[in-house]
Records
---
Amino acid sequence: MKADLVVKNAGQLVTVAGHSKKAKRGRDLGELAIISGGAVAVRDGLITAVGKTGAVMEQIELTGDGRIIDAGGKVVLPGLVDPHTHLVFAGSREDEFEMKIKGSAYLDILAQGGGILSTVRSTRAAGESELAGIGKKYLAEMLSQGTTTAEVKSGYGLTTDDELKQLRAIQALRDGQPVELVATFLGAHAIPEEYKENPEAFVGLIIDEMLPAVSRAGLAECCDVFCEEGVFSVEQSRRILQAAQRRGFKLKLHADEITPLGGAELAAELGALSADHLVAITRQGIEKLAASQTVAVLLPATTFCLMGEKYAPAREMIDAGVAIALAGDFNPGSSPVNSLPVVMGIACRQLKLTPAEALAAVTINAAHAIGRAISVGSIEVGKKADLVIFDAHDYRSIAYRLGTNLVEKVIKSGCLVVGG
Ligand code: IZC
Ligand code: ZN
C-alpha cells in the first residue's frame, strides 16, 4: 500500500478508536485504545493504516516524495477538537476582568450595557478583513496548542448585516490556515441596546430576517441561542431553534450556565447536537440528556475565569450516562482561554475527570458535538490524518503540566503545519 506520510515509533499512539458513530459514555469514556510503539500511515490526507510500527512499515511503500516522521517514543494524539468558541471579535475586555476581581457579576455587567454588548460595539465598528485578521492570530495560537478543528460562533453583530459580516469573516478564515472550522449562527446572543425595550421584536427579526439571510448565504451549519435569565427565555429559545431546524440548521444551545432554566431539557427535546455549559443543570436535565444523543459540552475554563465556586456536575453526568465533551469557550469576556490542554488541566482538577476522560472529551466526543465524528476526532483508517505529537512519554502529562505547551508537531490532513 502506498503512503505519502508515516508517523512511526509513537510511545503511546492514543487512537480513541471505535466511536465514530456514537459518542463515548459512562465507563467507556476513559478507554482510549492506546497502541504502544504505534504508527500511522497516510495517503492524500487520509489515514490508511494504524498499528504497531513494525506491522505498518511492512504494509506500506513510501511514495517518491513521501516522508517519515519518527515520534521518538513520544505521545501521539488525534488532532484536538474545540466544539465551542467565539473566536471572531474585535476589542477585548480587560476592564471587566478587573471589575470581576473586585466583585462584579457577569450578568450585571451585561445588564449595564457592557459584557457581550461591549464586544458588539467594537465588532460592529470593525471591517470584515480586520475581523478575519484578528481571528487568524487567535487561530494560530489554538493550532500551536494542538487544535485542528474548531467551531466558531457569530453573535457580536446582532444586526442582519453585522451577523453576515462576522460569518463572512469566519468563512475568510478558512483560507490560508489549516484549522478546519464549523460555523454557527448565534444571532440570539444578547438583546442589542436598540431592542432593549422590545426584545420580542428582536426575536422576530432573528426568525424572520436573520435566519433566512444566513441560510441563503450558506454561511453557517449550526444555530445556537444564549438561553439565560435576562437574555433569551426557554420559550424564545425554542421558537428560534425550531425555526432554524426547519431551515436545516443543526442545533446547539447555551444551556443552564448560571440559572437552571431547563435549557438541557430543551436541547434534548429538539435533538440538538449539544447543550453547552450546564453548571446549573438539574437532575431532570441530566436524565433527559442521558436518554438523548445530545452531547453535554462542559466549559470549565469559563467557570475558572468567572471565579465561580460551582463547576458543572461532570461526574454525576458521566455516571448517569450523559455523553460529555470539553471546550474552551474562547471569548473576550468569560473565557480568554484558547488552549485545550489548559482546559483539560482545569477539567481534571475541578470536574474530577481523569486525564483519559478529558482526552476523549476533546477528541471524539468533541467531534460528535459538532457533527464531525465521521471524519475527525480519532486515529482510524479512513479519517483525516489530523495528528499531534507531544513532547511527553505519558498522555497524562498533557493535563498534568498545566500551562506548559507540550505540542511539538501538528499534522492536519496529512500536512505538517506546526513544528516542521
Ligand atoms: O462575550 O461574554 N457567555 N456568551 C455567553 C459569552 C459568554 C461571550 C461573551
Ligand atoms: Zn459561549
---
Amino acid sequence: MVKAIVGANWGDEGKGKITDMLAADSDIVIRFQGGANAGHTIINEYGKFALHLLPSGSFNQNVTNMIGNGVALDIPELCKEIDEVVSRGVPKPNIVVSERCQVLMPYHKLFDQYEEERLSDRQFGSTKSGIAPFFSDKFSKIGFQVWELFEEEALKEKIKNVLEVKNLMLEHIYHKPLLNADELYITLKEYGKMIKPYVIDSVAFIHEAVKNGKNILLEGQLGSLKDPDFGIYPMTTSSSTLAGYGTVGAGIPPYEIKEIITVVKAYSSAVGAGAFVSEIFGDEADELRKRGGDGGEFGATTGRPRRMGWFDCVASRYGCRVQGTTQVAFTVLDVLGYLDEIPVCVGYEVDGEVIRDFPTTNKLEKAKPVLKVLKGWKTDIRGIKKYEDLPENCRKYIEFVEKELEVPITIVSNGPAREDIILR
Ligand code: GDP
C-alpha cells in the first residue's frame, strides 16, 4: 500500500509531523523531489529536529528511508544530518539512496547565489541551496547521477566538459572566480566515498517492496502552490511538489498510490516573493507570526520571517485538487485560539468579478481577497484528544473549511508534538 503525504499550500504545513506519525506504520519512507532547500520540523522523544534531506521516518528503526532519484542529493548535507541525529542519541537511521539520484554540486549553490545577486531587486528569494541550477542542469543533461561518481575516467572527462560552459558563465556573466577541474574531481571522489554505503538500485528495491505489499510512504516537500506547473509560476520551486510525481521521483507504479493525504494549514504562511492574496500585514501579521507553528513562523532552513495570511479556501481547494487528495490533515489549528473572529478568504475579486477557481499568476497578482468572518473559540485546544471535545466554534471552523475543500478532513493537528492529534 502506497500513501503520499503532501502539502496543499506554500509548504511549512506541518508535513514532517504527520509523516513522523504515520511512519510508525510504514516500512519505507521516501523523499521523491526537492532537496535540502526546505525543512521539516519534527518533535519526538529525542527532541526537536529540523530535517532538510533526511526522510521523516529516520527516527524509526523499522523504517527504511529512501532518497529517491527525483531528489537533489546534497551529499555533505545528508551526511551532516545523519551525524547530527546520531549525535543526539537517535539510533543510526536506515538510509538508502537511489543510484539514479543526481548529485548537487558545490557550484550549484554558487550559481544560485550569483544569479540572485545579478537579479538584485528582481530576485526570487531563493534559499540559495542550489536547487534551480541543479534542476536546470539535470534537464540540460549536464547533471551527474550517483553512479557516475564511481566511474573515474569518465568522471574526469565529464567534469572537464561541464566546467567549460560553467567557466564561460562565471567569467562573462557573473565575473566570479573560475572553477578548477582537478579540485572538483577530488571533491566528487570524496562525495563518492561518503555516499557509497547507502547506494542501491532503487527500481529493483521498490519493485520488490510493492510486490511484497510493503507499506510505503511518499513524503512531499513544499506544497502545491510551489509546483513548477500548477503553482504560482515562476515563484515556484524547481521540481514537482505533487504526489503524482512520486511515480517518477521514486519509481512507484502510478496505480499503486492509494491514499493521498494532503496537509492543509489552518492559516496561511509563505516564504519568498510572489502573489499572496490573503496576506496580512502589520500588528495583525506580527501577532499571528509570533504565535504560529512551534515558537513562531520563521523558515526552518533560512530562519527568515514567514509572510502571514488568513486561511485561503480558493488556494487550498486548488492545492488539494491538483494533489488528487483523498483525505486532509488540518494542522496548527491551536494557533488560532487567541482570535475573537477569524477571517477566511472564500473568493478572489479579479477585475470586478469574484472567482472561486485558482487563476494563473497574472490574475492572482490583481486578486483581492473576499473574506468571510467566522467566530473564534478563544481557548487553548492543545491536549484535546477527541473531536467532540473541541469547542463548538472550532468544529464549525473545521467543518466550514472541509466543505470548501470538498475533501474529508480526517486528521486534525492541535499542537506540535506527536501526540497532539485528533483522528476523526
Ligand atoms: P513541513 O515542512 O510541512 O514539515 O512544516 P515545518 O516543519 O516547516 O513547519 C511546521 C511548523 O509547525 C513546525 O514548527 C512544527 O513543529 C509546527 N507544527 C506542526 N503541527 C503543528 C500544530 O498542529 N500546532 C502547532 N502549534 N504547531 C505545529
